[in-house]
Amino acid sequence: MVIRLLIPFIAILLFLLEPEFALFSPIELNGQTVFLVPRFLILYLIFVSIYYNRRRAVVYGLIFGLLYDVFYIDIIGLYSVLYPLICLIAGSTVKFIHQHLVITTLLSLILVAIMEIILYYFFYFINFTTITFTVFMMTRLVPTIVANLLFLVMLGWVFKYLINARVLQRARENT
Amino acid sequence: MPHFSNKKLILLLVSMIFIVALISFSLRDRQNATLPEQFIKDTVGLVQGLVAKPANYITGIFNDINSLLNTYEENKRLKMRLEDFAALQSEVNTLKNENKSLRDIVEKESSLREYVPIQATVIARNPDQWEEKIILDKGSTQGVQVNMAVMTAQGLIGKISLVTPLTSEVELIQTNNPNFRVSAVIQGENEEIFGLIEGFDVERNELIMKRIDSSFEVKEGELVISSGLGGIFPKGILIGEITEITTDDFGLTKMAYIKPAADFSMLQDVIIAKRNIITIDKHEELINEPTEQTQGTGE
């Protein structure tokens, strides 16, 4: 019972922790302002999608994306589309790519980078930002990916362990 | 099985149209939150507030350690300023008294300078940081209204852009929004020089103050405060310090770069300034309070 609730519980926890970590940003680094965007939730959902269940990850992505849109962004339909989409792509790669932890980590970082780029072009398009792509690369994309890499290196194996525990439990229930 | 049947294709198209409509709808009306939005914001805000408490406590410890490490240098610097401070304090006191007696003489009670502070805690910062905004734990039930000024102990940080019953959103002054203007005053040596703060230079990390009359002489290092003339902010909130002065694009007026006084990372406790000059609410409170008390004793 505890393990069953664990997967959504971690998702809620990460959703609530993201803005707290965002309070640390922006950081001054060598005289340059650097933005670190915490993307814990989507990284976790990518793990869920790859190791557990694609369908469930998409549903979680939709719910949390909608909450994210309403609470933080005030543009409804941005994250609530991107999150499920990323989960869907992640889940579809299972057939072609070996599910080793290192490969999954790299894959989720690539997906997050793609999401960041899409977001940049969206906000550029609606005139919320005027920075050029190179500036975006240096002050946002690279630091964000590095910070999230650190997060995954620390907690990626925990995610995998917990999700595997749930998968095993489910298999036992079914037999 | 075909990958995209007719049904799926139609569903995809309809949902795409729906999403585009939703995005454009939420982009257009950004002053008010709809009822379901308010409900979600309040619920998430409540839970977020619970999480924010321990998180703030932990960051508080880190800040304490950080300031402990800087103690020696800071102490040296502060000691140097202490002597000036004592003289300044006595001067402020005499000026305050003088101001009060002069006000009594002309019977002018309310001033643009006065405001009721509402203490609030930052419960979240927009995690994706494209639009600079923070979310506070006080909402319309505590008397917060749209367009109120928000500041820290150091200086102005922004204004309230959206209010729900239990939370409110602050648009920071370092925004890209061209409609965000603050009427400001440069405190020159003998005169006050008016201007408008509009825009933020992302690369320099500084605010831009425009429309300064070119006949005035502005110096670097002078302080900029809010003027209270915009009708929103109270007078006298520190905004920042001038770092560079140039002429603007047309060469008619001057333009100044201002280093903000407030620190925008690690925002925790802020003050919402409710302007005093509109006193209707206050009268109502005064009338309501005694009646509530008599009702209480009657029951």
From TrEMBL, chain A:
<feature type="transmembrane region" description="Helical">
    <location>
        <begin position="121"/>
        <end position="139"/>
    </location>
</feature>
<feature type="transmembrane region" description="Helical">
    <location>
        <begin position="97"/>
        <end position="114"/>
    </location>
</feature>
<dbReference type="Pfam" id="PF04093">
    <property type="entry name" value="MreD"/>
</dbReference>
<feature type="transmembrane region" description="Helical">
    <location>
        <begin position="145"/>
        <end position="163"/>
    </location>
</feature>
<keyword id="KW-1003">Cell membrane</keyword>
<comment type="similarity">
    <text>Belongs to the MreD family.</text>
</comment>
<dbReference type="InterPro" id="IPR007227">
    <property type="entry name" value="Cell_shape_determining_MreD"/>
</dbReference>
<keyword id="KW-0133">Cell shape</keyword>
<feature type="transmembrane region" description="Helical">
    <location>
        <begin position="34"/>
        <end position="52"/>
    </location>
</feature>
<keyword id="KW-0472">Membrane</keyword>
<dbReference type="GO" id="GO:0008360">
    <property type="term" value="P:regulation of cell shape"/>
</dbReference>
<feature type="transmembrane region" description="Helical">
    <location>
        <begin position="59"/>
        <end position="91"/>
    </location>
</feature>
<keyword id="KW-1133">Transmembrane helix</keyword>
<keyword id="KW-0812">Transmembrane</keyword>
<dbReference type="GO" id="GO:0005886">
    <property type="term" value="C:plasma membrane"/>
</dbReference>
<protein>
    <submittedName>
        <fullName>Rod shape-determining protein MreD</fullName>
    </submittedName>
</protein>
UniProtKB/TrEMBL annotation, chain B:
<dbReference type="InterPro" id="IPR007221">
    <property type="entry name" value="MreC"/>
</dbReference>
<feature type="domain" description="Rod shape-determining protein MreC beta-barrel core">
    <location>
        <begin position="122"/>
        <end position="273"/>
    </location>
</feature>
<keyword id="KW-1133">Transmembrane helix</keyword>
<dbReference type="GO" id="GO:0008360">
    <property type="term" value="P:regulation of cell shape"/>
</dbReference>
<keyword id="KW-0472">Membrane</keyword>
<dbReference type="InterPro" id="IPR042175">
    <property type="entry name" value="Cell/Rod_MreC_2"/>
</dbReference>
<comment type="similarity">
    <text>Belongs to the MreC family.</text>
</comment>
<dbReference type="Pfam" id="PF04085">
    <property type="entry name" value="MreC"/>
</dbReference>
<dbReference type="GO" id="GO:0005886">
    <property type="term" value="C:plasma membrane"/>
</dbReference>
<feature type="transmembrane region" description="Helical">
    <location>
        <begin position="9"/>
        <end position="27"/>
    </location>
</feature>
<dbReference type="InterPro" id="IPR055342">
    <property type="entry name" value="MreC_beta-barrel_core"/>
</dbReference>
<protein>
    <recommendedName>
        <fullName>Cell shape-determining protein MreC</fullName>
    </recommendedName>
</protein>
<keyword id="KW-0812">Transmembrane</keyword>
<comment type="function">
    <text>Involved in formation and maintenance of cell shape.</text>
</comment>
<keyword id="KW-0133">Cell shape</keyword>
<dbReference type="InterPro" id="IPR042177">
    <property type="entry name" value="Cell/Rod_1"/>
</dbReference>
